[in-house]
């Protein structure tokens, strides 16, 4: 008998972050952001770890740079990221794992703008699900829970019946605040993350069981 990754738990739906969770866009994003940081006199090595898991406009806004329009700068960065997708790849096992899920039981919930999300998913060869929650959809971005609450609502389920797949601290906090269970995908982590949540390297070897009521469990 196989053992569940969450013994005794079955979930109404799965909510997936995108960057670092089902695909790797770190090289692309960091090339664009590094160039921007150098142009603005920032220490690139210190700045780059702060960009992951949150909306671009919020990353820029919290810097408080004089004379910088966060909305305009974020739009320019998104445009540059749209052009830089050559080395975007799916996380190992993600394509098969997503393909095993019923279409009405999973969503992507990302801090990326919709056009960039669609561009990266296409570059990685991953499907765009019927429910795709992006930066434009939620009033507050991660670490606020709004995006995961919205993803669950659009699937017609309660957030506390969902399993959130995340890689970044802001997204993990958002999943927790939404009341969901969280699993951490560590494929893109360069250092171990201190977390109490179940952590897996990637989707290799993970399978989904679906019961008669359509509830999901991972083995």
Distance between the termini: 10 Å
As for the CATH topology of the largest domain, it is: Rossmann fold
Strand order, main sheet: write it out: 5-4-1-6-7-8
The appropriate CATH architecture of the largest domain is 3-Layer(aba) Sandwich
Contiguous runs where pLDDT drops below 50 for at least 5 residues: none
CATH superfamily of the largest domain: HAD superfamily/HAD-like
Please indicate the percent range of residues in DSSP E strands (runs of 2 or more): 15-25%
Shape: globular
What's the average pLDDT? 93
User: Could you give the count of β-strands?
Assistant: 10
Summing up helix and strand content along with how strands pair, one would put the structural category as alpha/beta
What is the CATH class name of the largest domain? Alpha Beta
Query: What is the H/E order?
Result: EEHHHHEHEHEHEHEEEE
Helix count? 8
Q: What attributes does this structure have?
A:
219 residues; alpha/beta; Rossmann fold; 2 domains; six-stranded parallel β-sheet; two-stranded antiparallel ribbon; 34% helix; 15% strand; globular
Task: Give the topology.
Blueprint: E1 13-16, E2 23-24, H1 26-39, H2 44-47, H3 56-61, H4 70-83, E3 89-90, H5 94-99, E4 106-109, H6 114-124, E5 132-133, H7 146-155, E6 162-166, H8 169-177, E7 181-185, E8 198-200, E9 208-210, E10 216-218
Parallel strand pairs: 1-4, 1-6, 4-5, 6-7, 7-8
Antiparallel strand pairs: 2-3, 9-10
Helix pairs in contact: 4-6
